[in-house]
Amino acid sequence: MDGNQISMLKKIMEIEFTCIDLNLYLDTHPEDQKALQDYNYYSNQLSMLKQQYEQFYGPLMVFGHSQSQYPWKWVDDPWPWEIEY
């Protein structure tokens, strides 16, 4: 696993955390327009980053969430607990 791949995974985790945090906040503050704008911004950023990652390194999720190039790429990457950050 190269440094760029690890960097992209870290950024994906950071943005996912931000989306989760904003999602929880919006559950109790649904009228907060700024929070909703932030959520939509980060959700879009996350989608683009995941798409970029998958183009270079293969799928992040299975069960129909991510497509794979031939041959099946899911088993090529190390499992999350095997990655040294």
Automatic annotation (TrEMBL):
Span of domain Protein CotJB: 8-82
A Pfam entry, by short name: CotJB
Superkingdom, taxonomy of origin: Bacteria
InterPro entries, sorted: CotJB_dom, Spore_coat_assembly_CotJB
Annotated protein name in UniProt: Protein CotJB domain-containing protein
Native source organism of the sequence: Thermoanaerobacter thermohydrosulfuricus WC1
